[in-house]
TrEMBL record:
The active site is at H11. Its EC number is 1.11.1.7. Ca(2+) 1 binds at D12, V15, G17, D19, S21, E33. Ca(2+) 2 binds at T141, D193, D200. It comes from the Eukaryota. PROSITE patterns: PEROXIDASE_1, PEROXIDASE_2, PEROXIDASE_4. Residues 1-273 form the Plant heme peroxidase family profile domain. One of its GO terms (molecular function) is metal ion binding. It comes from Linum tenue. Substrate binds at P110. It catalyses: 2 a phenolic donor + H2O2 = 2 a phenolic radical donor + 2 H2O. This is peroxidase. One of its GO terms (biological process) is response to oxidative stress.
C-alpha cells in the first residue's frame, strides 16, 4: 500500500492544502473528492488510514488528538521508508477540514496527460518550483498505474493533445501492450518503473531511456528545462534525489495547513464531527 498512501497525501495537499479533505465521504453537504476524476476508482488506502487512526487514538487515551491530515503526512513518509527510501522529519500540527471540493480536485490535481508547461503551472500554483516538480514526480518510483492512463502513450498516440507520442522506446511500448489493450483492460496495471516495490532512482533512468509510463512522466525528459535535473537524479545512485525528495515532501506538506482554531480534529476521518 506504500505508493497508494503516498499518493493520498499528494492528492490531499493539492486540494485546499494538506487538510485531510480527500478522506471525507460524500454527504448532502460534502462534495467528496473521492469521486473526482483523478481519484475515482483509483485512490485507495482509506481503510488503512482508518486502522491507523484507531490505533493512534487508542495510544492517545481513546481521544482524537492527532488529525487525519497529520496521519496522512506521517503515513506517506513511513511508506517511503518502508520501501527503502529517504527519511525526513514530518512537521505536525495540521488540523482537519470541514469541507471538500471535487471541483478543485478535478482542476488542481495534475493529470497524467499533462505536458511540461502544464505540470510546471500546476505545481507553481501550489508554491512548488521546477525542482520540486521533478523530485515529487519521483514518487512514481514505486507503484503502478491503470492502463487507461497510459494506453494512448504506448499505442504511440496521445489523443488529449492530438499529437504523436514519439518520445517512447519501441520495445518498452510493445511490452506494455501485452497487458494494456487498444480497446479494453482499463484497470489493468503497469508498473511505473522497473522496480515498483523499491524506492530508488530507476524512475529517472527510465525517463532518460524513453521508458516513462505516463505522458506526464516522460514530459520531464523531452528536451525541456527539466532534463538536467532528471539526469542528475538518475546518477550517483539516486542520492541527490533522496535528499531533494525529502525536502520537497516537507515543502508540499506545508501547503495551506489549518492550524490554531481553524478546522477540527476529526473523530472519524471519513466525516466531519457532529
Amino acid at each position: 500500500m506504500g505508493a497508494s498512501l503516498l499518493r493520498l497525501h499528494f492528492h490531499d495537499c493539492f486540494v485546499q492544502g494538506c487538510d485531510g479533505s480527500i478522506l471525507l465521504d460524500a454527504t448532502p453537504t460534502i462534495d467528496s473528492e473521492k469521486t473526482a476524476l483523478p481519484n475515482n476508482n483509483s485512490a485507495r488506502g482509506f481503510e488503512v488510514i482508518d486502522m491507523i487512526k484507531a490505533e493512534v487514538d487508542k495510544a492517545c487515551g481513546g481521544k482524537p488528538v492527532v488529525s487525519c491530515a497529520d496521519i496522512l503526512a506521517v503515513a506517506a513518509r513511513d511508506s517511503v521508508v518502508a520501501r527503502g527510501g529517504s527519511r525526513w522529519e514530518v512537521q505536525l500540527g495540521r488540523r482537519d477540514s470541514t469541507s471538500a471540493s471535487r471541483t478543485t480536485a478535478n482542476n488542481d490535481i495534475p493529470s497524467p496527460f499533462m505536458d511540461l508547461p502544464a505540470l510546471k503551472s500546476s505545481f507553481q500554483k501550489q508554491g512548488l518550483n521546477e525542482r520540486d516538480l521533478v523530485a515529487l514526480s519521483g514518487g512514481h518510483t514505486i507503484g503502478f498505474s491503470q492502463c487507461q492512463f497510459f494506453r494512448n502513450r504506448i499505442f504511440n498516440e496521445n489523443r488529449i493533445f492530438n499529437e504523436t507520442e514519439a518520445n517512447i522506446d519501441a520495445e518498452f511500448a510493445r511490452e506494455r501492450r501485452a497487458s494494456c489493450f487498444a480497446g479494453s483492460g482499463d484497470a489493468n496495471l503497469g508498473s511505473l518503473d522497473g522496480s515498483p516495490a523499491r524506492f530508488d532512482g530507476s524512475y529517472f533512468k527510465n525517463l532518460v531511456e524513453k521508458k516513462g509510463l505516463l505522458h506526464s512522466d516522460q514530459a520531464l525528459f523531452a528536451g525541456g528545462s527539466t532534463d538536467s535535473v532528471v539526469k542528475g537524479y538518475g546518477s550517483n545512485n539516486g542520492r541527490s534525489f533522496w535528499f531533494d525528495f525529502a525536502s520537497s515532501m516537507v515543502k508540499m506538506g506545508n501547503i495551506k495547513p489549518l492550524t490554531g482554531n481553524r478546522g477540527q480534529i476529526r473523530v472519524n476521518c471519513r466525516k466531519v464531527n457532529a
